[in-house]
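Hey all, quick one. A colleague (J.T.) asked me to put the nicotinamide-adenine-dinucleotide job into the tracker so the inputs and the structure tokens live in one place instead of scattered across chat threads. No bug as far as I know, just bookkeeping. Sequence used:
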Amino acid sequence: MTRDFVHEDHPGRVVFGAGARHRLAEEVERAGLRRLLVVSTPEQADLAAAVCAPLGGRVAGLHPHAAMHVPVPVAELAIARARELTADGCLAVGGGSAIGLAKAVALRTGLPVVAVPTTYAGSEMTPIWGLSDGGRKRTGRDRVVRPRIVVYDPELTTTLPAGRSLTSGVNALAHAAEALYAHDRSPITDLVAAESVRAIADALPRVVADPHDVDARADALYGAWLAGTVLGATSMSLHHQLCHVLGGTFDLPHGATHAAVLPHVLALNLPAAPEALAALQAALGTTDPALHLFRAARRLGAEMSLKALGLPEDGLGTVVDQVVASPYANPARVTETGLRRLLGNALVGAGPA
Ligand code: NAD
């Protein structure tokens, strides 16, 4: 381990446990918040209303209009609603879309965010915001958007179907895996990321076998919390760049794309990142983490072919060009030939080279 690092901590309060949603009112009171704007997706409007019902008069209004990737008009509407209601905070109930909308409100208004996550995306632990405008996505970092209070209740995740739980879990695992070879990692992020990989890999087969197993859900959500923490503390590499390009250009599904791409990127990167390789070997109990993850994801039912997920064969060149044009920091050298080989394998769902 190279003892040369910068580590920054962000203040934040995490309340974790089965039934933790019943402690939300106490948390909101403790924080002195009196007029919350509650945001969710339309699909989770009833859940958001139920979760915040015990808050009574501390809820200024419900706004169930969150959408994937926070389109600018969706953000503007929520910001206007927060101002109209003279809200003093924004409570997000849901996955990355709801939390992303609360972050957009915070970015403009400075209001504190409280999050009750229901997926494994991890946005609640990061200072990263994102806005999409006409198909183009802008992201940035600002500590004002990082939720001040996060209430994790694994019972709220039991409604996430097995397939989406798997891809959301692999998405989280990918944050932790890339944190292990990030150029700006630290001894703390290394420990957190390795524990995250271990917890998620252990929990996902149990979650898929029984989505209502609250212990398995708690383990997966615990791993996702840790993954979100290291996502917020380090810079991601080739895997996230590829998923960003594939999602942005070809509208491939977010979580499923992570599952199909991660083993291939790890096969390329781990020989150039011996400490990450050793950490993943220990966390997963295998000598070949890339192959292990490929087989595990496929066995649990993930679609491993990018073609089946919607990438046209002739789209491969576009992806390669975009990645080569603006390279992210990455442990292994990324060449056009190497990328074509990697994507060619992922296209057809073949195992990692
Ligand atoms: P999501 O929030 O869009 O949720 C997908 C769908 O599942 C929605 O309809 C939602 O209502 C529903 N859903 C959520 N939880 C559920 C549950 N427990 N049961 C049943 N249905 C449920 O998806 P996501 O994967 O959580 O988030 C993806 C978004 O988050 C992307 O826009 C991504 O870019 C962003 N993200 C941001 C960060 C960050 O740090 N800023 C980190 C990770 C992801």
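Adding what we noticed when we looked at it: The first strand starts at residue 13 and ends at 16. Residues 41, 43-44, 68-69, 94-98, 100, 118-119, 121-123, 126, 128, 130, 156-157, 159-160, 168, 231, 254-255 surround nicotinamide-adenine-dinucleotide (CB under 6 Å).
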